[in-house]
Amino acid sequence: MNLERYPLQNPEQIASPALLYFREHILANLDAVIRIAGGVERLRPHVKTHKTAALTQLQLARGIRKFKCATIAEAEMLARAGAKDVLLAYSVVGPNIARVVRFRCLYPDVALSVLADDAPAVELLAKECSAFNRNLGVLIDLDPGMHRTGVSMDEKAVELALYVAGQPGLTLRGLHCYDGNNRAPDFATRLETARQTLSVTRQLKSAIEGHGVAVPTLVMGGTPGFPCYATFDDTELSPGTAFLHDWGYLRAFPDLPFTPAALLLTRVISRPAADIFTLDLGSKGIAADPQGARGHIPAYPDAEPLLQNEEHWVFRAPDARPATQSEARPLPEVGAPLLVIPTHVCPTSALYSEAIVIDGDGTVADRWPITARNRSIGV
How many Å apart are CA 262 and CA 118, to the nearest integer? Predict the structure, then answer.
């Protein structure tokens, strides 16, 4: 990873650890997403990665009109930013049923939809909507084999869709299928798996429509599957990580044409041994999932993580020379700033109250509040 792509002037003026958003890379990723999609009409980007009104407004300025989110706070952030079509891609249960109906009351001009995979939960949702004379869109959440949420992709999905369509206060808006289990590193294999998943989804759509119930949309995939589903003309596309990208997806999916745009500024706070250095980037500053390396240090790509606590991250680098140098590079001195690419950027963003926006010349251009990192921002 070429650090020249991440110029940073006056890092001594930025307290660490800090979340940095490199604006030129974000804009390039946004343009790449639109190019792959063939336009903005089919895009429904997921905002769970960045959780910011500012990036949402960049997408709105490009003509994107539909959005996807994971929390009610993210939905409200979108509404405040100007979005008019929002899919809360989460099953709504418990007190959140009343919260989504309250959202519809507060933002009546926003078309809000939610996911469903359980008939009793749908019944409660319908009763709450009817009590307040509000209508809510519902997409049936399908399980393509990930076994995280969703109803099986068979007659059960058809039955639930028909049940939703018959409930007062609810409107069936379509089918939702997130195939996060489709993680083949090469595009051709991912494409074939996506083709099979979409084929079954289309069959379900036809079966539901055979009962006289419209299925307006199919929302398919996430960032890895996005270029696959873009090759079919009857799907909405929901990339999320793509706009910031991260080390995990960069390694796992080399065909994705995106550049990591969210990096962490950290500093060496100790050199307890000749081959060991400690950063001020503990588990409170970078996502603890998935298992394995939680981030990549471009300046010391061979550094081996030894342990991480809340405020400390310890590395051993017995041979820290970059690939372009023939001699070993000395370890960084105490106080030296370093940049880290997080392995999983989505939960990493939520650990910071703001992102410091860096322009192409390395200067601080803005500070974006990570508004929806909280579970509630109003509703």
Answer: 37
Using the structure block, give the residue that is written with the tokens 């509404």: 79
Domain borders along the chain are: 1-25+246-379, 84-240
Average pLDDT of span 171-189: 97
Matching residue, tokens 């109003």: 378
Determine which of 141-155, 185-199, 322-336, 341-355 has the lowest per-residue pLDDT on average.
Answer: 322-336
CB 85 within 8 A of CB 56: no
pLDDT digits (tens, 9 = 90+) for 200-252: 999 999 999 999 999 999 999 999 999 999 999 999 999 999 999 999 999 99
DSSP secondary structure string for all residues of 204-219: HHHHHHTTT----EEE
Is residue 324 very low, low, confident or very high in pLDDT (cuts 50, 70, 90)?
Answer: low
How confident is the model at residue 328, as a pLDDT?
61
b vs e for 81-112, b when ≥16 Cβ sit within 10 Å of the residue's Cβ?
Answer: bebebbbbbbbbeeebbbbbbbbbeebeebbb
Q: Is there a cis peptide before residue 290, judged by omega within 30 degrees of 0?
A: yes
Give yes or no for a contact between 237 and 230, defined as CB atoms under 8 angstroms apart: yes
What distance in Å separates the CA atoms of residue 326 and residue 329, rounded to the nearest whole number? 9
CATH homologous superfamily for the domain 1-25+246-379? D-serine dehydratase-like domain (2.40.37.20)
Residue with tokens 């090469």: 186
Asked whether 161 and 152 are in contact (CB, 8 A), the reply is no
Say which residues have a Cβ less than 8 Å from residue 342's Cβ, sequence separation at least 6: 246, 247, 262, 263, 264, 286, 287, 294, 295, 348
103: pLDDT strictly greater than 70: yes
Residue range 84-240, CATH number: 3.20.20.10
Write the Ramachandran bin of 3: left for phi over 0, alpha for psi from -120 to 50, otherwise beta: alpha
**φ and ψ of 46, to 5 deg:** -85, 135
DSSP string, 280-340: S--TTTS---SSS--EE-TTSTTPEEEEE-SS-EEEE-SS---TT-SSPPPPPPTT-EEEE
**Ramachandran category for residue 378: left, alpha or beta (phi over 0 → left; psi -120 to 50 → alpha):** left
Tokens coding 185: 């590193």
